[in-house]
Design a protein that fits this description.
Elements lengths: L5 E17 L4 E5 L3 E2 L5 E2 L7 E5 L9 E4 L1 H6 L3 E5 L8 E18 L5 E21 L5 E24 L2 E8 L2 E2 L17 E2 L3 E7 L1
Antiparallel strand pairs: 1-8, 2-7, 3-4, 5-6, 8-9, 9-10, 10-11, 11-14, 12-13
Amino acid sequence: MHLGPFRAIELGVLYSHRTKALVYDQTSYELTDPTPCLNGLTCRPIPTSLKTASIDMRFIGLPGALYFRPDAALYGDAYDPAPNPKDPSWNWGVGEKVTTGFVKLDIDDSHVLPIRGNLGVQVIHTRQNASGLYVDAEGAISPVAGGTSYTDILPSLNLNAEIAASTRLRFGAARRRRDRKWPTCAPASPPPCRRRTGAGTVMAAILS
């Protein structure tokens, strides 16, 4: 390709699809057959079946410490499991489909100054969906779902000019967007759940 200052063209289409879900599942473990202990706490003797060894702690001034397997205690008869789920509104799922089309023109020109770089644009279409649970003031739970779609146009320009034998001027300008954290895409979050786009960035530098 040779069209004025442009020497090559690159174009294409990208597609991505991602999902994420968060489910809180919490369990508390309470001692079986507890007895009152210090400061209002409850205690119980360590079952003989859990005692495995005594560790020598004389190097820090203690006669020893009892060692036992915590997993055997949790899943044995020393504790009673008590399911303790989080607020259902903490549970959510989100999905996103992104289609990106792009065109990039390579620049190589020396009519005034030797200049190289590229000019490009991306057109990004995003479709998002989210689902979750809503809990009203009375504790009633109901499923909720929502979604949105939007298109961003992101141009960019990068130039590198040789203004002297050992000095170059670089210039760049682009419009870009920034991802939001996915939990803010849940139905209970303020809509719309879209990436933030800005006027972009402009950068210039002289290298010698």
